[in-house]
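User: These chains co-purify. Model them together.
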Amino acid sequence: QKEVEQNSGPLSVPEGAIASLNCTYSDRGSQSFFWYRQYSGKSPELIMFIYSNGDKEDGRFTAQLNKASQYVSLLIRDSQPSDSATYLCAVKAGTALIFGKGTTLSVSS
Amino acid sequence: DGGITQSPKYLFRKEGQNVTLSCEQNLNHDAMYWYRQDPGQGLRLIYYSQIVNDFQKGDIAEGYSVSREKKESFPLTVTSAQKNPTAFYLCASILGQGYTGELFFGEGSRLTVL
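Assistant: Joint model of the two components:
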């Protein structure tokens, strides 16, 4: 069974700090990796995707991928209270995305 | 505006009843998916369809059925065989199976069994 693992949290950071979210996956053949943000009661929305080893930056968000270690992370710089949400890591396995259980982030002002 | 429309947003069902959740997309996407989300459980794949008149079971298909008679529509029926159907159901679609694989989600349907 292909698996995606995340620490459920909650991860609590003060406003302005860097939040670091981590994810590991079991399928070595996975090629595409995604981070979705989900506010309570809402549907997930895509914030980052990454395919190649290394870092990918988009505004305050940086995704990091290490295929050898089967590890993908998301850094959120200058965290804001509006970033408080559940962050879902997803890995493309064949024709579907496999999701982790999500990490809940709480940013305090 | 293009997007995915799910209905109803909230649905209450008595035990033993079948219910059908609607999912319609006007994005001209090829593949469509149904996920179930329980508190603290992330998203689990129920069924998916890559082309019209074809669909495959996901990890938790038991007690559910789908159809894909039109490219735009992928309804999900929750049957009485589903032991614990109370959950948040999400429909999603992808343009193709190409490089990005970005899933677009509908707003979800919350089903409660009384």
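DSSP finds no helices and eleven strands in chain B.
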